[in-house]
Amino acid sequence: MVSGSHKELVQSILSLPNAPIILNEVRDRLAEEKKKREKFYNDITEYEKAEFINGEIIIHSPVKKEHNDVSGGLYQLISAYVKKHKLGYVGYEKIMISLSRNDYEPDLCYFNKSKSAAFKKGQSLFPAPDLIVEVLSKGTASNDRGIKFKDYQAHGVLEYWMIDPVKEIIEQFRLNKKGEYELVLKASSGEIVSKAIKGFKIPIAAMFDEDTNLEVLMAILTSK
Fold this sequence. Notes:
Order of helices and strands: HHEEHEEEEHEEHHEEEEEH
Strand order of the largest sheet: 3-6-8-9-10-11
CATH superfamily of the largest domain: tt1808, chain A
Radius of gyration: 19 Å
């Protein structure tokens, strides 16, 4: 997906008299980055949460309790709903999303039925999903709001949720007709309705309150 800003950047480079020199240097650096990325694939193990972002390897530290509570609770709800209605596949924590340049392990992601039908046993790299959820922390928020936001948008991830587990606020972004993320919800109460997961709607409190989470989970499991 090519945005207007992308086209403007290309045009800006092409307007420079030394454009060929710049492009050659970019090609050389990307070739070096490709080798580093291949080594990253060979070196990483299932025991660590690691990402490859613009040529740098990022190893994540253990999460805090509130982070785990939110991501684990939300995974239970989305996974139960998706499985019950046979809507696709839900990844959690260490599912590696491999995009054109970077590799991410989002806290939670959802692939529709069409995409997930091609998944195989032993697969370790996955395409851009339809929904990505990142739970914010001091160490990850800048990337979640920066490079990841731009990358998920550029690769057509339909819906992106960012959750602050301390302030108990969720931000929900959806791609608009221009292929750009548009903020459709920022709240700590009320309901959130997913466009990526057909029919999925939950109270925001279910992400932060254990009793509410259990009530919603039971409602999902017992609904017809």
